[in-house]
Q: What sequence folds into this?
């Protein structure tokens, strides 16, 4: 078992942009998610991608939230998607997105996404997207994946899923208690079934590749168990993928930096009560510290 720690990260450095690279060369992240009740999840994930060094950001969410999201994240291009009467992304929204997706280098699906239609939307987007784009699935995009893995498996070698124990139980169709009893076994099973890198989230997080490679991070802490924290982690992964980082490496870096951000906030503010959005401003300094030591 390989431990994710500063030594491992320094031995597996992130791609370093050249001094004359422009933003396009650091990649474009497209985040799709949200609903009228949870529009902020897309904001958290998108800002996290930029904090991880992605060059450009595009956000897509329900029409009723899109204008407000564009004002809250002026760095992003925002696409307004048709929505249902319940304030969810409409089933036909995939048609408006597919032509845009092949222009991005990383796609994050699921933050704040709710409703039974999420599965069909995810399937349509993954089925219509040309392989080669880095893909992260989180939250609402994880439902029923194991029973319909074919669209995701089209992108084998470029995909990451980021479930907590409850979401993993849904993916595998087993009780949550079974996942909690042996999270590594659950992660291995899901990675093989989906052909994806799995970040099995918890106070101890496991990163498992489809070939069985497994890494372990015990750097987590209790303050990270807060609303929106998972959205920030998924966004960091997407941002690193957009920069050209290998999926296993991107996931390992994201998991450790996310945990370290919590520790830095805890030292200044206390172990509980900091907000998920406060994690984001910590990421550039953490990344710079590790990269400087790697050099």
A:
């Amino acid at each position: 078992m390989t431990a994710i720690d500063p030594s491992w990260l320094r031995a597996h450095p992130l791609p370093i942009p050249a001094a004359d690279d422009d933003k396009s060369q650091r990649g474009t992240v497209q985040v799709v998610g949200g609903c009228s009740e949870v529009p902020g999840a897309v904001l958290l994930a998108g800002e996290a991608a930029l904090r991880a060094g992605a060059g450009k950001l595009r956000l897509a969410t329900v029409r009723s939230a899109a204008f407000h999201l564009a004002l809250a994240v002026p760095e992003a291009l925002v696409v307004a998607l048709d929505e249902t009467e319940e304030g969810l992304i409409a089933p036909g929204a995939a048609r408006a997105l597919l032509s845009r997706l092949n222009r991005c280098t990383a796609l994050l699906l699921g933050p704040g996404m709710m409703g039974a239609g999420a599965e069909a939307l995810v399937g349509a987007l993954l089925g219509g997207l040309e392989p080669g784009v880095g893909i992260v699935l989180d939250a609402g995009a994880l439902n029923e994946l194991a029973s319909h893995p074919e669209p995701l498996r089209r992108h084998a070698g470029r995909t990451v899923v980021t479930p907590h124990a409850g979401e993993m139980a849904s993916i595998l169709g087993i009780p949550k208690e079974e996942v909690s009893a042996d999270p590594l076994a659950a992660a291995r099973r899901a990675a093989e079934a989906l052909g994806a890198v799995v970040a099995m989230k918890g106070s101890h997080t496991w990163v498992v590749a489809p070939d069985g490679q497994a890494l372990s991070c015990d750097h987590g802490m209790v303050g990270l168990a807060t609303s929106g924290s998972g959205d920030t982690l998924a966004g960091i992964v997407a941002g690193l993928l957009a920069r050209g980082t290998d999926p296993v490496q991107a996931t390992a870096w994201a998991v450790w930096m996310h945990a370290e951000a919590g520790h830095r906030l805890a030292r200044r503010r206390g172990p509980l009560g900091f907000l998920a959005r406060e994690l984001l401003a910590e990421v550039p300094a953490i990344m710079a510290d590790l990269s400087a030591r790697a050099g």
In short: The two ends are 26 Å apart (CA to CA). The domain at 19-294 is CATH 3.40.1190.20 (UDP-N-acetylmuramoyl-L-alanine:D-glutamate ligase).
